[in-house]
Amino acid sequence: MKQSRRDFLHTTTLLAASLPLARFPLGAAEPTAMKPTPTPAAGPRGLLFDAADLPRIRANTTDPRFAAFWQSMLAADVAADTDFLEHHVRLRNHVVDLLHVQKILDRASFIYLVNRDPAQLALAKLAMRRMLDYPEWDSFVEGGKQVFGMQRATEGTFALLLALDCLGDALTAAERAAVEQAVLTKGVPACYTAVYGMKYPDRVRGWDWNPRSEVDEFRNISLKRWPIILAATNLRIIPTACLGIAACYFRGRLPQADAWLELARSSARAFSTMYGSDGCYDEGVSYWGYTTLYLALFAEVLWRTHGIDDRQLINYPGSVRYALTMTNPTIDDHRKVRDFQHVKGFTMPTIKPEFDVVNFGDANGGVDVSVAAWVRRTHGDEVAQYVAREIGEAKFVYGLIWYDPAASEAAPEPALLDHRLANDIVVSRTGWHTLDTVLALRSGGPANHEHADRNSVIFKAYGERLLHDPFRAAYVRAQPRWLLRLTEAHTAVLIDGKGHQYHDGSEGTNASWATARVIGYQTGPGWMAVTSDATEAYNLVNDKVTRVHRTLVFLKPDVVVFLDRVALAGATAAVQVRFQAYNEDLAGQVAADGNQFRITRPHATLLGRVAPAAGRTVHPGRLALAEEDGIYPFAEVVSPAAAEHAILTVCSARPAGEAHGDLAITTVEGGWHIQGSHGGRAIKLALTVGADAVPGVEVWSA
Questions:
Q1: d(CA 207, CA 223)
Q2: CB 536: neighbour CB atoms within 10 A?
């Protein structure tokens, strides 16, 4: 059943008003139009769990995998939360305060489900009432009137419906009816309007900031093109999933729920193409976690409540392998990392070193257990169980709901040690643990939450980030840390001091036009080589640019050779190659001497040897940020103005206190030889530059 936005908004309020008087059970007969597969279990079901699941969920709270997470939930200050809810909630503040209220509800209602603690019940009910006190649930309006939701109204809708399951008979009929009516009047319309607008952007009258919402830091961001921009981002699937979950909840009770569900399923199917065939996701692994979790939540609720199976919508086992590929655990020295505010009252999160990730773009959070546990349960994938048990971070209660400690696991297949993803990100490693080495290359196309980082590199060895990609770049262009989004803040190439094309931030953190492509990739015993072409991205800034190629040769475990080739037509330019050090904890140092540079971290060092050439220099530098905005040191190789550049840099890593080997770079006709010893093994490599775009690579020993 199709329904226009106008018809939807006209009928929803009437339906909400009549709902508390209705006496339709949630398990009402299935409408014939959906033609579902058989319901997986008889009788009415909870959205995510049944009574039979509670013993396993309770046991998971004491499992070593979740014990620390559970204790952190129990340690939350009930008195402080109560004081906030009673005295400090600002009913026009959706970005910070409404989220805080929702998180209290999430936590308290789930603790009550497990422990039946009356103090948590009282706190959950108070949080529920405060959410209902908000006259509106989000910061955006369509056509100057209708509030629509991206995160607060959407997540809040699901949080309230899940809380109804968690609190169960502890709620009165009146309390339950009040929640349902609020969801129908403030949640579902906001979700529906957002999803409808992204499906039919030509029918949108105009998206703008809610004049009654406290979002002054963001009002300079134009929302004019957001119905188009956000349709390919994580902010599409959140309202999609929450609309679909609400439709599942009310289906059989309200006739309009069929239309809501049809729109939500249609939107989810359209969005599924944002994933690669191998399950990769362009916005980065943090946004993969957020997006894929809500896609899975919708699929799970749809299957449990109505027997409709959308659990194969994307390559979920492959997507877990994508997340696994992007893990990058480092040593935790418990050094303080300075806080930076994203917006007033919202501190940018810092990532725990043991859950560090390959953070291309704005990625800034560890892989969570939840999706992997769900994929093991629904797809029988044993590698997903390995991720859930050994790799991911326990951050959400969904992991407690889905995790099965008795499920079998399997270690990642060896092919994942050298992984070229469908989106042209390449990650090569020696293993999956803290002291293993990870080398990651950012090739591929644009995406929401990206940085100007084509051909940039992250390198971790001996537990330390040695070549770094910055965390916590500003989302608002007026803030100084917007600089961290630009090419100059990455281990990448500059041409006459300029990076490749990037947008100005006037529409937020949306995609640029910059594209790179992997044009050569090969592996051998103990080595990997890749060449990426970012010419198009740089040509958008300087139309004289005809080549920007980066070749990496990784001799495992700790030697990486960089070859950067830049060419211009009818012009000359200087080229800078930057190697960024990790200094978020103020424990990184950069020094240079002659044709070498050294990056020093507490547990490891990196030595870079640059092939000499006339006029070429190597020196340390620092990003142009005030100290209060962070200290970001780098080493920079400068090649003087010319029409063609070929800059070879041989980097090696060693544990702190151990000497680097003697690796000699010899220039030969058509290329270079790198030969010597390092880490107790012989190194012999030849790079040949000929007519082909991809250099020839010969490895004799590694």
A1: 6
A2: 18
**Is the alpha carbon torsion for 466, 471, 474, 475 positive or negative?**
positive
Task: Give the integer Cα–Cα distance in Å for 414 and 401.
Answer: 30
Contacts of 68 (CB under 8 A, 6+ apart): 394
Torsion angle defined by CA atoms of residues 107, 109, 114 and 120, in that order, rounded to the nearest 10 degrees: 90
Structure-block tokens of residue 227: 């119905």
Would the pLDDT of 108 be above 60? yes
Question: Is the whole-model pTM more than 0.85?
Answer: yes
Note the pLDDT of residue 330: 98
- 222: Cα within 13 Å, side-chain hemisphere: 8
Return the structure tokens found at 215: 């979002």
Q: Evaluate whether 702 touches 555 at the Cβ level (below 8 Å).
A: yes
List of residues 6+ apart from 652 with CB closer than 8 A: 558, 559, 560, 606, 607, 609, 660, 661, 663, 678, 679
What is each CA distance from 624 to 484, 486, 629, in whole angstroms?
Answer: 10, 12, 10
Quote the CA–CA distance of 219 and 477 in Å, as a whole number.
12
Q: What's the one-letter identity of residue 23?
A: R
Cβ atoms of residues 120 and 108 within 8 Å = yes
| 187 within 8 A of 157, measured Cβ to Cβ | yes
In order, the DSSP letters of 20-70 are GG----TTPPPPGGG-PPPPSSSS---SS--GGGHHHHHHHTTSTTTHHHH
Indicate the fold that domain 415-701 takes in CATH.
Answer: Beta-galactosidase; Chain A, domain 5 (2.70.98)
Please determine, for residue 14, whether its predicted confidence score (pLDDT) is greater than 60: no
